[in-house]
Amino acid sequence: MAAARPGWPLPGSSALFVCDLQERFRGSVAAFPQIVAVAARLLQGCRILGVPVLVTEQRPEVLGCTVPELGAQDLPRLPKSAFSMAGAAAPLLGDPKIRSVLLCGIEAHACVLQTALELLARGLEVHVAADAVSSR
C-alpha cells in the first residue's frame, strides 16, 4: 500500500460524508441536479474502493428523504437536527484508521461548513468536493 501523504486521502483511511441531499432542497439549492450527480459519482467510486460512507438527513420529517438519484437507497441515512454531521458520525469517527473525510452536500454555509470545522478540530483532514457542494 502507498505511504500516506498529508493532504492525500487514501481508501483505507478515508470516509465519505454526504450531507443532507434531500427532496425539500431540490427547487431551492443552486445547481442541485449537478451537485447530486457529482455526489453520486463520488459515492459510486467510494463503493468500488471500499470507503465507508455516511449519509445524513437534516430533520427528515420536515425536509424529506434523501433524493433517489444519489443512489444511496441501500445505505442507512442518519437523521440529525444539528448543523454538523460529526455527532451522527460518532461511531465512524471512533475508528482510528479514519484520518481523512471527503465531504459533499448542502448547505455549504451551514452544515458543510460546521462539519468541516468540527472534523478539523478533531484532527482529521477534510477534503470538500467543491463541485458537489452548494447552498440556497
UniProtKB/TrEMBL annotation:
Pfam families: Isochorismatase (PF00857)
Span of domain Isochorismatase-like: 14-136
Signal sequence segment: none
Gene3D superfamilies documented for this protein: Isochorismatase-like
Superkingdom, taxonomy of origin: Eukaryota
Family that this chain belongs to: Belongs to the isochorismatase family.
Name of the protein described by the UniProt record: Isochorismatase-like domain-containing protein
Taxon lineage: Eukaryota, Metazoa, Chordata, Craniata, Vertebrata
